Amino acid sequence: MTMTLGQGILTVAAVVLGTVLTRALPFLIFPAGKPTPHAVQYLGKVLPYAAVGLLVVYCLKNTVWNVYPYGIPEFLSIAAVTAVHWLKKNMLLSILTGTILYMVLIQFVF
Amino acid sequence: MGTKQKAFRAALPKTLPICAGFLFLGFAYGVLMRSKGFSCWWPMVMSLTIFAGSMEFVTVNLLLSAFNPLNALLLALMVNARHLFYGISMLDKYRNVGKKKWYLIFGMCDESFSINVSAELSPEIDRGWFMFFVTLLNHCYWVAGASLGGLLGGMVTFNVTGLDFVMTALFVVIFLGQWFSVRDHLPAAIGIGTSAVCLALFGAEQFIIPSMALILLILMLLRRRLDSKKDGDAA
């Protein structure tokens, strides 16, 4: 590290501040005591679904689809998670199956 | 059994996949920091105070570049902008949980958010304490992983390539759970479709902000159609 200890601590503090701000801003702008605007209440109802969709894509953002192995391990593993979850509705089992399949695929197959 | 015990017993199994993922990712992060010449105190303190996985990896590079705290602040705001969506989604759920609210907000990482927003609890379980324990357990896993990585860095030879897929699998399962719990799939489809299109257009490093803007725009344009449906209620 080329920084001094103090500069390093200030850098980490700036990152903490930025991160906490993104988490706290909605609560500071719309405090519990005051009525929340209808548009924001509406967003609070539909955003949970859209946000998890965004999160799934976010996890796959570094997958390369046009170069070998064309995202096939990701695709097969997600298909397995979906199938197992559809059949058994058991969160841990679905995650375990998908993760083990993915590890086998990228370590031994592709 | 007391209220807290019941809530803890409900929370623990939901966090087990995250335990695996965080111990692994946190460990990787701790090892990385050691390999760049930081003492084990850095990953320990950073995992405890920042508690946002991807941003901590980014911060390692910030610490190795020229001192620029304003740049660090702006970068943290950009990388973590998706948390704004989580906050809006949790405005109601974090109400009436007392002082725990501030810790819940501080610890609202992707994983804690996705569990807390989608968990269907039986009525005898206190939602506030449940969410508190989910957040606290995840926080502990992450700090434990990062600290172990910082302490033991370089001593592991077991091949764990691909274990980070546990996080993708977790989010896919939560996505499916939400999908099956409501009749109207449009908000979920908008989230995944818009993000995928923006990822293709803007690339991995730039797509989050345009995705968020476009999702907000589309959801607001469809408000009349989506808001009238009562079954669109968040789990």
Mean pLDDT of chain A: 92
How many strands appear in the DSSP assignment of chain B? Answer: 0
- What kind of oligomer do you see? heterodimer
Sheet/helix structural class of chain B: mainly alpha
**What's the end-to-end separation of chain B, in Å?**
26 Å
What's the helical proportion of residues of chain A?
over 70%
Sheet-strand content of chain B, in percent, reads: under 5%
Largest interface: A-B, 70 and 103 residues
Unreliable stretches of chain B: 230-235
Number of domains of chain B: 2
Number of contiguous helices of chain B: 12
Structural class estimated from helices and strands of chain A: mainly alpha
Given as residue ranges, the uncertain stretches of chain A (5+ residues, pLDDT < 50) are none
User: Helix count of chain A?
Assistant: 4
Strand proportion of chain A: under 5%
- Helical percent range of chain B? over 70%
Largest beta-sheet characterization of chain B: none
Note the overall shape of chain A.
Answer: flat
Globular, elongated, flat, extended or rod-shaped: what is the shape of chain B?
globular
**Alpha carbon gap, first and last residue of chain A:** 37 Å
Describe the structure.
The complex is a heterodimer of chains A (110) and B (235). With 110 residues, chain A is mainly α. Chain A has a domain at 62-110. Chain A is built from four helices and no strands. Chain A has helices at 5-29, 38-59, 72-88, 91-109. In chain A, α3 (72-88) runs antiparallel to α4 (91-109). Chain B is globular. Mean pLDDT of chain B is 90; it is low at 230-235. Helix content of chain B is 71%, strand content 0%. Chain B is built from twelve helices and no strands. In chain B, α2 (41-49) packs antiparallel against α8, α6 (100-106) crosses α8 (127-152) and α7 (110-118) packs parallel to α9. Chain B has 235 residues and is an all-alpha fold. Chain B starts with a helix and ends in an 8-residue tail after the last helix. The longest helix of chain B has 33 residues, at 3-35. Chain B folds into two domains: 3-179, no CATH class; 182-229, no CATH class. At the A-B interface, α1, α2, α3 and α4 of A face α1, α2, α3, α4 and α5 of B.
